[in-house]
Design a protein that fits this description.
α1 (43-55) packs parallel to α2 and α7 (201-215) packs across α8. Helix content is 34%, strand content 12%. The chain has helices spanning 43-55, 74-83, 100-109, 123-130, 135-148, 167-176, 201-215, 229-244, 253-257, 308-314, 316-321, 329-333, 344-351, and strands spanning 12-16, 60-64, 88-90, 113-117, 153-159, 181-186, 221-225, 281-284, 289-291, 301-302. It has 13 helices and ten strands. Its cofactor is [4Fe-4S] cluster.
Amino acid sequence: MFPRDYNENPFIVIWELTRACELKCLHCRAEAQYKRHPLELSFEEGKKLIDDIHSMNNPMLVFTGGDPLMRKDVFEIAKYAINKGVRVSMTPSATPNVTKEAMETAKEIGLSRWAFSLDGPNAKIHDHFRGTTGSFDLTMNAISYLHELNMPIQINTVISKYNYDYLDEMAALVEELDCVLWSVFFLVPTGRGQEKDMITPAEHEKVFKWLYELSKKVNFDIKTTAAQHYRRVVIQNKMREKANSHEGSSIHYQDALVNGQTGQIDGLGRAPKGVNDGNGFVFISHIGDVYPSGLLPIKVGNVRETPLPHIYRESPILKSLRDPDLYKGKCGVCEFRQVCGGSRSRAFAITGDYLESEPYCVCLWQTNNVGYGN
């Protein structure tokens, strides 16, 4: 794979196969419904979309929803993508659709990873957040199936005021479940998600520092979503540690994010650099509409009308999202704007302007006490 230029190709593509889902999650971005939409992209249209995705330097492809398993042809679609060499993962909902037979089929076709959501360390917290009694038990059963099949497990958790006080217990559960990745989402008020459900800016900062310390102790990787300012916290902590060790404080951004033991980028998964809405990341809805992300509801095209590569490369909105010099307020002058940039989704949700400052970041960009490399 050639080096990836985010102006040309995304690192990750999310395809919302359907909005149908049996759960009623409090934060649901998609405001999912019980029945499938009649205008969902067809199997043939999906194959054309996969061809276009593959042509963009073969980014990672994630099937999401709703619940991808509500589509009967989900494994045919996945098989087509995998046979082309596309790296595919899936985030199904924990419903009776998640059977051991479904997982066996996924493994047979070569699906690289399954991700399940756990938003609390017990049924009371998780089921409240997911709006469905029994969701926690179904999730735990599904994870046990994956262990039996020796399939890697990713846990997704949305941080909100409902589970903020239980993060230590959550981390212990993720470790106990022998997961390869904990993907930590920070709530953006869109869809059913409300601003009143979010933790405060100061609590964001506290969680970021806690995640950084946790990342040095656990065996699983930690990745954040809608928390670009976690990168700033990682950099600042590593620079402080280097200064305290009398090795000097000058450090490159990329070096600051790389774990010296694993060679991977702490908090960023395996992306070669940070991704953001429309900048290394793009979202296709169930009916083919294209958005910078599923959390930034500004339509930039439709794959039924225009090929995805053209939309991604030529959309004026996506181009502006990829230019940190256009950011406003403190994000526009912050020296971390190239590596962080703040959540463009949250800026839009709170201010109505996707180029405004990240409203849930406490950074005041006064970092003159440490030196930075280029």
